[in-house]
Amino acid sequence: MDILVIGSGGREYSIGYALKSDESVDKIYFAPGNGATSDLGENIAIKDYEELATFAKENSIDLTIVGPEDPLVGGIVDIFKEHDLTIFGPSKAAAQLEGSKVFMKNALKKYGVPTAKYIETNSLDEATKFINSLNEPIVVKADGLCAGKGVIIAKSKEEAIETVSDMLSGKSFGEAGKQVIVEEFLDGYELSVFAICDGKDYVVLPAAQDHKRLLDGDEGPNTGGMGAYAPTPLVDEQLYSKIEDRVIKPTLKGLDSDGMPFTGVLFIGVMVVNGEPIILEYNVRFGDPECEELMALIESPVSDLFFKAATGDLKNLNIKFSNKYAVGVVIASKNYPYSSSEPAEIIIDEIHHEDLQENSYIAYAGVSRDSDGVLLATGGRVLVCVGLGDSIKEARDRAYMLTGQIHFIGKKCRMDIAYQALKD
Ligand SMILES: Nc1ncnc2c1ncn2[C@@H]1O[C@H](COP(=O)(O)OP(=O)(O)O)[C@@H](O)[C@H]1O
Ligand SMILES: [Mg+2]
Q: Whole-prediction pTM value?
């Protein structure tokens, strides 16, 4: 089967990398892809969704997999379906779970899924009243997509009111902030749980933990994610079944009966408070860098998972997970996440240890090739070093061994990925 992957990050590289070793996959295309996805398949420089659908038709693409949220929220799935193409991802209607936090919170409330107490509003007066009824800190969220920057944890009521006022005026996030959520602060630990859904049925992947802050010990500014590991021992069978019964099942049932069945990745942002899962948010695609580890933990053919999900056939899926652990360490460029960095040549030492060869891989993200074919770090998050092992520690050690083989000017990474699982 020929597959088109939409996106250009490490997430899409890792999906392509998993498809590459899948016997039923022939050709892989990436739109637009990056300087390393061209080693796995062919990069296509088409952006327009209608034109991509035409490309898929003309090239007899059997399955399209959408990586990022923007095309999903923009309705790429609906356009492909109008052309009778098979595509993995939610419709524009269902993608509002990520596209609008107001839509998402109201859906959680309607379907009875546990979430932080909140109001949605575009009135400063109403927000102020609610803020005054809460204890500090107070969480303020812009409604629309803000590339991970639209959530402010205000330390005081004054700061919360000021944040709401800036958002509503359009000053901080433009249209995306003209409607806001104010909610109570939840104190617990965070998890990412991914359910692959076909509209009715679902498969839960091993739970992962991301590291959003730039620096060790969860210090410094927020980033797109500096590393992740899975499965995390912070989830036991009991917690998984609470998440299935209280979160996934009612959400899929509710969306289906509201006429927007959910197909694709339901990314559940969970805060575990006193052992109970409370939902922070939904996203409608894989997390990046969580995808890079999860792809390495699926032993059965991943094309089968995506194809069966896209065609409403998950009940006939046999999925097999590896019993290993995966740890992914992001290597970012010098000025990340503040500003762009000068392109720098990437040099990778030859790996001699068989052990490392067999239990690691690099997922490339912010890379390009110059006219001589030299691989360049072009800024942002450059790549993810993924290590596998029989324990989290072994996987972590291999991931860090791999980071030592990679060189470019300004290279930086966190040194404590998976620390929460390795405490004492
Ligand atoms: N109610 C809350 N209580 C405590 N922390 C929160 C709350 N809501 C969000 N956060 C923190 O803010 C981060 C971003 O919020 P989230 O809802 O995931 O929005 P987004 O990923 O779109 O920026 C979360 O990962 C979590 O660390
Ligand atoms: Mg989030």
A: 0.96
Q: Which residues of 195-226 are buried (b: 16+ CB within 10 A; e: fewer)?
A: bbbbbebbbbbbbbbbbbebeeeeeeeebbbb
Contact 278, 299 (CB under 8 A): no
- For the beta carbon of residue 158, count every other beta carbon within 10 angstroms: 11
Chain segment 89-100, per-residue pLDDT in tens: 999 999 999 999
String of b and e for 96-125 (b: at least 16 CB within 10 Å)? Answer: bbbbbbbbbbebbeebebebbebbbbeebe
DSSP code of residue 211:
-
Q: Atom of ligand 1 at shortest distance to CA of 116?
A: 1
pLDDT at residue 147 in the model? 84
Q: Identify each DSSP E strand in 37-161 by its residue range.
A: 42-43, 63-66, 87-88, 118-121, 138-142, 151-154
* Interval between CA 219 and ligand 1 midpoint (Å): 16
Identity (one letter) of the amino acid at 41?
G
Residue 344 DSSP class: E
**Cβ neighbours of residue 242 under 8 Å, at least 6 residues apart?**
276, 277
Looking from the CA of residue 145, the nearest atom of ligand 1 is 22
Site residues for ligand 1, CB cut-off 6 Å: 116, 139, 148, 150-151, 183, 185-186, 190, 269, 280-281
Handedness of CA 30, 379, 224, 72 (dihedral sign): negative
CA–centroid distance, 131 to ligand 1, in Å, is 17
pLDDT at residue 290 tops 90: yes
pLDDT at 148: 81
Q: Residue 184 CA: which ligand 1 atom is closest?
A: 1
Task: Write the single-letter amino acid at 170.
Answer: G
Quote the CATH superfamily of domain 123-178.
Answer: ATP-grasp fold, A domain (3.30.1490.20)
Mean pLDDT along residues 168-180 = 95
Counting ligands in written order, which one lies closest to the CA of residue 182?
1
- Nearest protein CA to atom 1 of ligand 1, as residue: 185
Ordered by start, the domain boundaries in the chain are 3-92, 123-178
Pocket test for ligand 1, best of 163, 280, 283, 288 (most atoms within 8 A of CB): 280
The SS3 assignment for 75 reads coil
The two tokens of residue 318 are 């046999």
Would you state the CATH architecture of domain 3-92? 3-Layer(aba) Sandwich (3.40)
C-alpha span between 229 and 418 (Å, rounded): 6
Mutate to test the pocket of ligand 1, among 281, 282, 285 (most ligand atoms within 8 A of CB): 281
